[in-house]
Design a protein that fits this description.
Elements lengths: L1 H7 L20 H11 L43 H12 L14 H18 L6
Subcellular location: Nucleus
GO molecular function: chromatin DNA binding; histone H3K9 demethylase activity; metal ion binding; transcription coregulator activity
Protein name: JmjC domain-containing protein
Length: about 130
Amino acid sequence: YIEQVGKERGEEIEPHHDPIHDQSWYLDVELQNRLYKEYGVLGYTIVQCMGDAVFIPAGAPHQVKNLHSCIKVAEDFVSPEHLNHCFSLTQEFRLLSDTHTNHEDKLQVKNIMYHAVKDALAVLNNAEPEED
């Protein structure tokens, strides 16, 4: 959708760039309404006040509009149960240009896999045999 809007506005769509990973677009009310009309995607507005924490589920597209000066603190969590999705994202990141900030493997998929297997083997090695 974002690339389509960019083409309509005469913008050049560069290879090895991604409008989502680049965080180069902000959908204003007009674009949000069009997204709902054409694709059935409805956005929600959440106003965060001082002291509030906002949880955004993994994979949920979102955008932030700061109304005042603020400090953002984000914590990402990747679990071994979702390595297939993490691997897909890593492949997407690899297609970005070499100078892109998300080009490297930020999710550390190999490390997650290594530690998951190591922990599973430790559990199996420490398990007491069942008695008949």
